[in-house]
Each structure stands twice: as structure tokens, then as C-alpha cells.
Specification:
mainly alpha, two-stranded antiparallel sheet, 171 residues, 6% strand
Length: 171
Amino acid sequence: AGFVSRAIAFVLDILIVIAIIAVINGAIALTLDFFLGLDVASCPPLNFGNGVLQSGLICHAANLTRLVLTFVAAPVYFGLFWTLGGQTLGQYVMGLRVVRLDGKRMTFWRSLVRWMGYFVSFFALGIGYLWVLWDDRRQGFMDKLAKTVVVYSWEAKQNEFLLDRIRQKLR
């Protein structure tokens, strides 16, 4: 698959991950604010006595949970979608699919290796993404690391109406 369709799919996927993170963080913050009256943006200090320790612990635990979920959301999103269906939602919209070079199904481990390849591509001054432009198999660094390739997933169908018109003109 080409660079532009892959880039559009990646941007769509990142927007989806940002939305997932916002929903999770908002749900945690709103739940604590509504039921316990805790503002997770300004947690009380962990002082002993008068119940402040309990509310402070809950608030700091909620912030830690939000932080962990924020860092885990993207690898889990990409890993699960690549493992279960071979394509993320953004790749589905663009008609792309990630497949292994040996033809086997994607494993979660290989999906995580491919996800880490995004960071390798980024820290290589973006060359890992641009490598798609001149590689014979259109593989970026992430594809080379995970031994995958991105292909178009839609089925090619003939336009019967167009073929009939061409046949009539040739007769």
C-alpha cells in the first residue's frame, strides 16, 4: 500500500486513540467528582487524620490509573485490531490490511513489535515512515521489524456497465 493511504489511516487511528483516552480519563474524573467530590486535577496532600488520607489516596490512585491507561491505550488498540482482524479502524476506512510475510496470522507479540517500530521510525528522524516511498515492498521500518507488509484489502470488481459499453463500441 502507498504512503498517502497509510498516512491517512495512521492519522485516523491516532485520532481514535486520543478519543478513547479522553473518554477513559473523563469517565474516571467525572465519576470521582460526582460521587466523591474529588477533583483529580488538584489532589489533596496525603496527610494523616480527618479522612484526608483516604480521599488523597483515592485521588492519587485515580491519577495513576489514568496515566497507566493513557500509555496502554494505543498499544492495546493497535495490537488487538492487528491481531484479531489484521487492520485497525483507520486502515479499514482506507482499505488497508497488515499481513505477515510468511502468510500466517498476526500474533499479539508481533503486533506490539510493529507498534514499537513506529517509535523507531519516528526517532530515526521520520526516515522509517518515508522508507515506504522507495522500498520495493513498500515496507517502513515498523514493517521490517515485524516482518509484515501493508496491502490493499478491497476486492477488485469489474465495472460490467463500462465493459458492456466498450464491447458495443468495438462491434
